[in-house]
Amino acid sequence: MLVAAFMAVEVIVALSSGSLSLMSDAGHMAADVVTLGAALVATRIAGRSDTSGSRTYGSYRAEVFASGLAALVMLAVAVYVVVEAIRRAGTEPTIPAAPMLVVGGLGLIVNVVSLMLLRAGSRESLNVRGAYLEVIADAAGSVGVILAATLMITTGSPAWDVVVALAIGAFVAVRAVLLAREVLDVLGQHAPRGFDVDAAAHDLAALAGVRGVHDLHAWTLTSGMNVATAHLLLEHGADPSSTLVVAQAVLRDEHGIAHATLQLEDQMSAQCHDVSW
After folding, report:
1. Which residues contact 240 (CB under 8 A, 6 or more apart)?
2. What are the transmembrane regions (predicted)?
3. CATH number of 2-187
4. Which fold has domain 197-274?
5. pTM value?
6. Mode of pairing for the β-strands spanning 210-222 and 259-265
7. Could you give the CA distance from residue 56 to residue 259 in angstroms, rounded to a whole number?
8. pLDDT, tens digit (0-9, with 9 covering 90-100), for 22-58
Protein backbone atom coordinates (compact mmCIF):
# COMPACT_ATOMS: atom_id res chain seq x y z
CA MET A 1 0.00 0.00 0.00
CA LEU A 2 2.89 2.35 0.79
CA VAL A 3 4.42 1.90 -2.68
CA ALA A 4 1.01 2.19 -4.39
CA ALA A 5 0.19 5.43 -2.56
CA PHE A 6 3.51 7.03 -3.47
CA MET A 7 3.17 5.85 -7.07
CA ALA A 8 -0.02 7.92 -7.36
CA VAL A 9 1.82 10.98 -6.00
CA GLU A 10 4.67 10.43 -8.48
CA VAL A 11 2.26 10.17 -11.43
CA ILE A 12 0.56 13.45 -10.46
CA VAL A 13 3.88 15.30 -10.13
CA ALA A 14 5.18 13.75 -13.37
CA LEU A 15 2.12 14.90 -15.32
CA SER A 16 2.19 18.40 -13.84
CA SER A 17 5.96 18.88 -14.33
CA GLY A 18 6.30 17.08 -17.65
CA SER A 19 9.23 15.04 -16.35
CA LEU A 20 9.74 11.90 -18.42
CA SER A 21 12.14 10.35 -15.91
CA LEU A 22 9.54 10.74 -13.16
CA MET A 23 6.87 9.21 -15.40
CA SER A 24 9.13 6.29 -16.31
CA ASP A 25 9.90 5.66 -12.64
CA ALA A 26 6.19 5.89 -11.83
CA GLY A 27 5.49 3.38 -14.59
CA HIS A 28 8.13 1.09 -13.13
CA MET A 29 6.51 1.37 -9.71
CA ALA A 30 3.12 0.73 -11.30
CA ALA A 31 4.45 -2.50 -12.81
CA ASP A 32 5.77 -3.53 -9.41
CA VAL A 33 2.43 -2.74 -7.76
CA VAL A 34 0.71 -4.88 -10.39
CA THR A 35 3.25 -7.65 -9.81
CA LEU A 36 2.91 -7.64 -6.03
CA GLY A 37 -0.87 -7.15 -6.06
CA ALA A 38 -1.43 -9.82 -8.68
CA ALA A 39 0.86 -12.20 -6.80
CA LEU A 40 -1.16 -11.62 -3.63
CA VAL A 41 -4.46 -12.23 -5.44
CA ALA A 42 -2.98 -15.23 -7.25
CA THR A 43 -1.80 -16.70 -3.94
CA ARG A 44 -5.31 -16.45 -2.53
CA ILE A 45 -6.80 -17.96 -5.69
CA ALA A 46 -4.26 -20.78 -5.64
CA GLY A 47 -5.28 -21.64 -2.08
CA ARG A 48 -8.92 -22.17 -3.03
CA SER A 49 -10.22 -25.67 -3.52
CA ASP A 50 -11.48 -26.56 -7.00
CA THR A 51 -15.23 -27.16 -7.08
CA SER A 52 -15.50 -27.70 -10.83
CA GLY A 53 -13.55 -30.93 -10.92
CA SER A 54 -11.81 -29.83 -14.14
CA ARG A 55 -8.73 -28.13 -12.68
CA THR A 56 -6.84 -31.20 -11.53
CA TYR A 57 -3.79 -29.11 -10.63
CA GLY A 58 -5.91 -26.52 -8.85
CA SER A 59 -5.33 -22.84 -9.62
CA TYR A 60 -1.60 -22.67 -8.92
CA ARG A 61 -0.89 -21.31 -12.40
CA ALA A 62 -2.71 -18.08 -11.46
CA GLU A 63 0.62 -16.69 -10.22
CA VAL A 64 2.20 -17.37 -13.62
CA PHE A 65 -0.55 -15.50 -15.47
CA ALA A 66 -0.17 -12.63 -12.99
CA SER A 67 3.55 -12.47 -13.77
CA GLY A 68 2.74 -12.42 -17.48
CA LEU A 69 0.46 -9.43 -16.92
CA ALA A 70 3.24 -7.65 -15.03
CA ALA A 71 5.68 -8.29 -17.90
CA LEU A 72 3.22 -6.74 -20.37
CA VAL A 73 2.79 -3.67 -18.15
CA MET A 74 6.56 -3.26 -17.88
CA LEU A 75 7.01 -3.56 -21.65
CA ALA A 76 4.27 -0.97 -22.18
CA VAL A 77 6.11 1.43 -19.84
CA ALA A 78 9.38 0.90 -21.72
CA VAL A 79 7.70 1.51 -25.10
CA TYR A 80 6.00 4.65 -23.81
CA VAL A 81 9.31 6.07 -22.56
CA VAL A 82 11.06 5.42 -25.87
CA VAL A 83 8.22 6.88 -27.96
CA GLU A 84 7.98 9.95 -25.74
CA ALA A 85 11.76 10.42 -25.82
CA ILE A 86 11.71 10.32 -29.65
CA ARG A 87 8.85 12.81 -29.70
CA ARG A 88 10.84 15.20 -27.52
CA ALA A 89 14.01 14.91 -29.62
CA GLY A 90 15.29 18.34 -30.65
CA THR A 91 13.06 20.20 -28.19
CA GLU A 92 13.99 21.91 -24.93
CA PRO A 93 10.92 21.57 -22.70
CA THR A 94 10.87 23.52 -19.46
CA ILE A 95 10.93 20.97 -16.66
CA PRO A 96 11.19 22.16 -13.05
CA ALA A 97 13.98 20.18 -11.38
CA ALA A 98 13.02 21.02 -7.79
CA PRO A 99 9.81 18.91 -7.74
CA MET A 100 11.74 16.03 -9.33
CA LEU A 101 14.40 16.24 -6.63
CA VAL A 102 11.82 16.31 -3.83
CA VAL A 103 9.72 13.45 -5.21
CA GLY A 104 12.81 11.39 -6.03
CA GLY A 105 14.09 11.88 -2.47
CA LEU A 106 10.73 11.00 -0.94
CA GLY A 107 10.54 7.95 -3.19
CA LEU A 108 13.94 6.79 -1.99
CA ILE A 109 12.82 7.21 1.64
CA VAL A 110 9.65 5.19 0.97
CA ASN A 111 11.69 2.44 -0.65
CA VAL A 112 14.21 2.36 2.21
CA VAL A 113 11.36 2.05 4.74
CA SER A 114 9.81 -0.75 2.67
CA LEU A 115 13.16 -2.54 2.51
CA MET A 116 13.51 -2.36 6.30
CA LEU A 117 10.03 -3.85 6.71
CA LEU A 118 10.71 -6.66 4.25
CA ARG A 119 14.32 -7.44 5.12
CA ALA A 120 13.71 -9.99 7.88
CA GLY A 121 10.98 -11.87 5.99
CA SER A 122 13.07 -11.97 2.79
CA ARG A 123 15.36 -14.53 4.43
CA GLU A 124 12.49 -16.90 5.16
CA SER A 125 9.92 -16.53 2.37
CA LEU A 126 10.47 -16.75 -1.40
CA ASN A 127 7.47 -14.46 -2.05
CA VAL A 128 8.72 -11.85 0.42
CA ARG A 129 12.18 -12.04 -1.14
CA GLY A 130 10.61 -11.33 -4.53
CA ALA A 131 8.91 -8.25 -3.09
CA TYR A 132 12.20 -7.20 -1.48
CA LEU A 133 14.00 -7.35 -4.83
CA GLU A 134 11.20 -5.37 -6.50
CA VAL A 135 11.59 -2.58 -3.95
CA ILE A 136 15.36 -2.54 -4.53
CA ALA A 137 14.64 -1.97 -8.22
CA ASP A 138 12.24 0.86 -7.30
CA ALA A 139 14.96 2.42 -5.14
CA ALA A 140 17.29 2.37 -8.15
CA GLY A 141 14.64 4.25 -10.15
CA SER A 142 14.33 6.89 -7.42
CA VAL A 143 18.11 7.33 -7.43
CA GLY A 144 17.88 7.85 -11.21
CA VAL A 145 15.30 10.62 -10.76
CA ILE A 146 17.48 12.32 -8.14
CA LEU A 147 20.46 12.09 -10.48
CA ALA A 148 18.48 13.58 -13.37
CA ALA A 149 17.27 16.50 -11.23
CA THR A 150 20.77 17.14 -9.89
CA LEU A 151 22.29 17.16 -13.38
CA MET A 152 19.56 19.47 -14.65
CA ILE A 153 20.23 21.93 -11.82
CA THR A 154 24.01 21.86 -12.23
CA THR A 155 24.12 21.96 -16.05
CA GLY A 156 20.89 23.79 -16.81
CA SER A 157 20.05 21.26 -19.52
CA PRO A 158 16.64 19.49 -19.48
CA ALA A 159 18.08 16.80 -21.75
CA TRP A 160 19.19 14.86 -18.69
CA ASP A 161 15.55 14.13 -17.91
CA VAL A 162 15.21 12.23 -21.21
CA VAL A 163 18.60 10.51 -20.82
CA VAL A 164 17.76 9.15 -17.37
CA ALA A 165 14.25 8.24 -18.51
CA LEU A 166 15.72 6.15 -21.34
CA ALA A 167 18.06 4.46 -18.85
CA ILE A 168 15.14 3.61 -16.56
CA GLY A 169 13.10 2.47 -19.57
CA ALA A 170 15.94 0.17 -20.69
CA PHE A 171 16.21 -1.23 -17.17
CA VAL A 172 12.46 -1.91 -17.10
CA ALA A 173 12.56 -3.48 -20.58
CA VAL A 174 15.36 -5.89 -19.62
CA ARG A 175 13.51 -6.94 -16.46
CA ALA A 176 10.30 -7.39 -18.47
CA VAL A 177 12.01 -9.61 -21.04
CA LEU A 178 13.61 -11.76 -18.32
CA LEU A 179 10.28 -12.10 -16.52
CA ALA A 180 8.47 -12.91 -19.77
CA ARG A 181 11.04 -15.63 -20.50
CA GLU A 182 10.36 -17.22 -17.13
CA VAL A 183 6.61 -17.10 -17.75
CA LEU A 184 6.96 -18.65 -21.21
CA ASP A 185 9.25 -21.36 -19.82
CA VAL A 186 6.57 -22.34 -17.30
CA LEU A 187 3.69 -22.18 -19.78
CA GLY A 188 5.78 -24.09 -22.32
CA GLN A 189 6.42 -26.74 -19.65
CA HIS A 190 10.18 -26.50 -20.01
CA ALA A 191 12.29 -28.38 -17.49
CA PRO A 192 12.73 -26.33 -14.29
CA ARG A 193 15.76 -24.07 -14.24
CA GLY A 194 18.72 -25.89 -12.77
CA PHE A 195 17.16 -29.30 -13.41
CA ASP A 196 19.47 -31.62 -15.37
CA VAL A 197 17.35 -34.25 -17.12
CA ASP A 198 20.32 -36.48 -17.93
CA ALA A 199 21.67 -36.31 -14.38
CA ALA A 200 18.27 -37.15 -12.91
CA ALA A 201 17.86 -40.11 -15.27
CA HIS A 202 21.38 -41.29 -14.39
CA ASP A 203 20.69 -41.09 -10.63
CA LEU A 204 17.43 -43.01 -10.99
CA ALA A 205 19.01 -45.67 -13.17
CA ALA A 206 21.79 -46.11 -10.59
CA LEU A 207 19.34 -47.11 -7.85
CA ALA A 208 19.36 -50.71 -6.66
CA GLY A 209 16.72 -52.72 -8.51
CA VAL A 210 16.40 -50.28 -11.44
CA ARG A 211 17.73 -51.33 -14.83
CA GLY A 212 16.30 -48.56 -16.98
CA VAL A 213 14.59 -45.16 -17.00
CA HIS A 214 12.45 -43.70 -19.78
CA ASP A 215 9.69 -41.16 -20.35
CA LEU A 216 11.22 -38.76 -17.83
CA HIS A 217 9.41 -35.41 -17.94
CA ALA A 218 9.82 -32.47 -15.56
CA TRP A 219 8.18 -29.06 -15.48
CA THR A 220 7.26 -26.20 -13.17
CA LEU A 221 3.67 -25.94 -12.04
CA THR A 222 4.21 -22.54 -10.41
CA SER A 223 6.96 -20.80 -8.47
CA GLY A 224 8.61 -23.26 -6.10
CA MET A 225 6.54 -26.24 -7.28
CA ASN A 226 8.48 -28.53 -9.60
CA VAL A 227 6.89 -31.82 -10.67
CA ALA A 228 8.01 -34.81 -12.72
CA THR A 229 6.90 -38.13 -14.14
CA ALA A 230 9.03 -41.11 -15.15
CA HIS A 231 8.87 -44.82 -15.92
CA LEU A 232 11.31 -47.06 -14.05
CA LEU A 233 12.11 -50.46 -15.49
CA LEU A 234 12.77 -52.79 -12.54
CA GLU A 235 15.05 -55.79 -12.33
CA HIS A 236 13.50 -59.16 -11.62
CA GLY A 237 12.90 -59.54 -7.88
CA ALA A 238 13.25 -55.85 -7.04
CA ASP A 239 11.04 -54.50 -4.25
CA PRO A 240 8.65 -51.98 -5.89
CA SER A 241 7.67 -50.24 -2.65
CA SER A 242 11.19 -49.50 -1.42
CA THR A 243 12.34 -48.57 -4.94
CA LEU A 244 9.49 -46.08 -5.27
CA VAL A 245 10.27 -44.44 -1.91
CA VAL A 246 13.99 -44.13 -2.64
CA ALA A 247 13.43 -42.84 -6.21
CA GLN A 248 11.04 -40.12 -5.04
CA ALA A 249 13.50 -39.13 -2.32
CA VAL A 250 16.33 -38.83 -4.87
CA LEU A 251 14.25 -36.57 -7.10
CA ARG A 252 13.13 -34.48 -4.15
CA ASP A 253 16.46 -34.11 -2.31
CA GLU A 254 18.93 -34.12 -5.21
CA HIS A 255 16.96 -32.49 -8.02
CA GLY A 256 14.37 -30.22 -6.37
CA ILE A 257 11.28 -32.11 -7.55
CA ALA A 258 8.57 -31.53 -4.96
CA HIS A 259 6.19 -34.13 -6.41
CA ALA A 260 7.12 -37.07 -8.63
CA THR A 261 4.74 -39.56 -10.21
CA LEU A 262 6.66 -42.73 -11.01
CA GLN A 263 5.43 -45.75 -12.94
CA LEU A 264 7.20 -49.02 -12.10
CA GLU A 265 7.43 -51.66 -14.82
CA ASP A 266 8.88 -55.15 -15.04
CA GLN A 267 9.07 -54.78 -18.81
CA MET A 268 8.62 -51.88 -21.19
CA SER A 269 5.02 -51.69 -22.37
CA ALA A 270 3.97 -51.42 -25.99
CA GLN A 271 2.63 -47.96 -25.25
CA CYS A 272 6.10 -46.78 -24.17
CA HIS A 273 7.50 -47.95 -27.52
CA ASP A 274 4.71 -46.32 -29.52
CA VAL A 275 4.77 -42.85 -27.90
CA SER A 276 7.60 -40.70 -29.26
CA TRP A 277 7.28 -37.73 -26.89
Report:
1. 234, 264
2. 64-83, 95-118, 130-153, 159-180
3. 1.20.1510
4. Alpha-Beta Plaits (3.30.70)
5. 0.76
6. unpaired
7. 14
8. 888 888 787 777 767 766 776 677 666 666 666 666 6
